[in-house]
Amino acid sequence: MKPVLTLSVAWLAFAVTLRAVGAGTGPAVPRADVLRTVYFSAVDAGGAHVPDLTAADLIVKEGGKERPIDAVQPSTKLMQLSIIVDDGGTGGFQTAVSQFIQATFGRAEFAIRVLSPQAIRVLDFTRNGDDLRTAVRGLVYRGRIPTDGEQVIAGVSDAAKELDQREAPRPSILVLTVTGEKALSDLSDDTLKALKNSGAGLNVVYLTGISLGKVLGDGPKQSGGLIEQVNGNVALGPAIAKIADNLLHQYVLTYTIPDGVKPNERFSLSTTRKNVKLLAPTRIPEK
């Protein structure tokens, strides 16, 4: 047995030596820095888009900690726009949806859901003009469609989860609603979480007098989207144009989280430029 014991001791000494050599002279393990990407927009006091922001004009904080900015530039990446139509069966948003698609056509691919009363996807993501025209032609009067205020929340959840599964690089959701949402819904928190995880900006156009809750009311603020109130068809066109224009003039910002630092959902973007307002998310995916 003695030779066996001697051999074991020798192998143990050899293994210790290997570990010591590896720790001192082996190749360095590459740092696992995390690159984060955020889309935002900027307007001046008159509401005009600011085209010349640089990293020096901005301050990024994640989880309350300031992070160095790698780059800021106008975004040219293709958008993934998910449209949710809650018109109560009136067909009243047909022109607005057509206007939005025309304004962003060539810069995006589109999916469309219609509440009937659940949110039914009538068009998968496409850039094909004929398919888009056919889908928009279907947004006509369909008879009164009653909703309970939860279908639109579920529609936002479905759209956000779909964008997340597709790993859409530049996602946004547009909701047009005449019925609003249920103020207290068990679906709200999970839907806001799905929205955050997708990285999509939520934009909402709603009719004066309807109720908005956590999702349609707070979602745009948390995700960096716009919320526009309209009084009927007269104000609908400008509201849609404003949202489309905002998406077309977004910046893309990248910054780095150092190795070993856990990503945080709390995000803050501010500027040192006077009379400049930023439209940016306050919650981002923890990934």
Describe this structure in words.
With about 290 residues, this protein is an alpha/beta fold. The chain has a domain at about 80-250: Rossmann fold. It contains seven helices and 13 strands. α2 (about 95-105) packs antiparallel against α3 (about 130-135), α2 packs parallel to α7 (about 235-250) and α5 packs parallel to α6 (about 215-225).
Strand content: 25-35%
CATH class of the domain at 79-248: Alpha Beta
For the termini, the CA-CA separation is: 55 Å
CATH superfamily placement of the domain at 79-248? von Willebrand factor, type A domain
Summarize the structure.
With 287 residues, the chain is of the alpha/beta class.
Outline the fold blueprint.
Layout: H1 2-25, E1 34-44, E2 58-62, E3 65-67, E4 69-74, E5 79-86, H2 94-104, E6 108-115, E7 119-126, H3 129-137, H4 151-165, E8 171-177, H5 188-198, E9 201-207, H6 214-223, E10 227-230, H7 233-248, E11 251-257, E12 267-271, E13 276-279
Helix pairs in contact: 2-3, 2-7, 4-5, 5-6
